[in-house]
Structures are given as C-alpha cells and as structure tokens.
Sequence to fold (305 residues):
Amino acid sequence: MMAEAGRHAVFIWSAYGITTVIAVALVLRAVLDHRAQRRALARLEAAGAAAPGQETGRV
Amino acid sequence: MLTRLANPATFMRVSGYALPVLAVAAALLGAYGLYLAFLASPADYQQGETVRIMYIHVPAAWLSLLFYSIMAVSALGTLVWRHPLADVSQRAAAPIGAAFTLVCLVTGSLWGKPMWGTYWVWDARLTSVLVLFLMYCGILTLWRALDDPGRAARAVAILTLVGAVNIPIVKFSVEWWSTLHQGASVFRVGGPLVDPAMLRPLFAMALAFTCFGTALHLAGMRTEILRRRVRRLTLLQAERLERAAA
Fold:
C-alpha cells in the first residue's frame, strides 16, 4: 500500500522518521538522567550522607 | 487514593509497578497502530497516502494539549496546596509536552506542503500551537534560570497558569477564526467526520502515544524525586563537613 505513496512518500516517511527520532531522544534522556541521579545518590550514600533507602518519604 | 498516591514513597512504589506495564502497552499499541496505519487502512480519496501523517500528527496535537493541562493542574497544586509532588509532576511534564508539540508542528508542516502547497501559514490554529511550543520553551528556560527550587516552582506555576489561556484558543481557533487548518473532525457534535477505517488506526496510535507519554511522565517524576533527594543530601553533607571543619 505504501509503495503507492509515490511523490508524497518523502513527506510521509520524513514525518514518521522525525517522530521516531524525537521519541527515541525522549526515552534516552529519561534513561540517562535517571541513571545519573541513581549514581549520584549511590555516591552520597557511600560517603555516608544517608543510609541506603533512607528519606524516601520526602521530596 | 489520590492523597495516598501523593506521598512520594507510595508514588515511587506504585509507579515502579505501573511503568513497565505502560511501556509494554505503548509498544504493543504502537505496533498495532502502525500495522493499521500502513497496512490495514485505505488512502484518503482526496489526500491520498498523505492521510497517514494524521495518525501521528493528531495524537501528538492531543497530547501537547493534555500535557499542558496536566501542568496547569500541577501548577494549581503547587500554588494552592503547596504539594511538592505537584511541582515534580509539572517539571516532568514540560519536556514531554514540548516534544509532542514539536512533533505536532513538524508533522503538520510536512502534511501541509503536499496538501496546502506550503509548509506554514500564520493562521490561528498553527500560530496558537506555535505559541504553545514557545510557552513550553519559556517554562523550561525559567526553571533553569532560577537556582532556588521553591522560587522556581512558584514562578513557573504562575507562568503556566497564565499560558493556560492559550489552551482553549488552540482548541477553538478553527471555530473562532477562518483558518486554512481544517475544523474539528473527530470530537465534534454530530459525531466524527473521519471514516471508521481511519478512526481505528487513529485511536490505536492515540492510545499508544498516551501510554508512552504517561510512562515518560512517571519516569520523569521518579527521576525528579531522586534529583531532589540528591540535592538535599548534597546540602546536608556540605553542612556536616562545614561543622566538622569548624
């Protein structure tokens, strides 16, 4: 069906391609940011700033 | 239920279960939606194959408004109830909403060129969505500009509520003004104008986008809670070191 997209194929594929890039960027950002905060928290806990898992009830 | 969920420890536990479920649902619904969009739905009699851009453009547009609405409700939570999770929710929602608005603008532009003969016109719908995107960018910039999280939360909450005026303008712009952009064709009095064969992929993709956005929002909130814990512990550690040195 999409083989018939013809002269408009570039617009359709560009739209889906850009959406995919933005979606992947959102996921990567979420994963990397979460890992960075986990690492920072682990460093602080290792340095004795707080016991592991402590202070979970406050933001 | 909401009061219990508003406790950060409970939120972390519940969101820990919900996150993988939402991620899997988004992947499955996305795959099904793409199958319907590309293989099991017809081309439009007027727009031809370009109608397939609708299956990402419209859900992105819906979610750009939904995430701003979530931010506006969270802003009220920050200003009225001063609940810290409200600010966490708002902060996590902003980049996701901005991304969906960007997808909406770009895919709309790519749909506009073959259908209207132009990537952009300054009509009320397109301009109000661009204003929405600029509001998201302004909010994200304001957060980065203010060091004190409490002050930043209140300033951003006020800016968000001011910007919420734009939400009904985006929604009703196609009715209030004469626009090149078509009027409402799905949620309208008298029922959808879109053929059921095209509504199915549209709703499947809209559900996939909603699950994806919600999963990202929960993940963002969990990270924001961690970031604040890191900030607080860093300050505590600095105070402790200062006392020890004195």
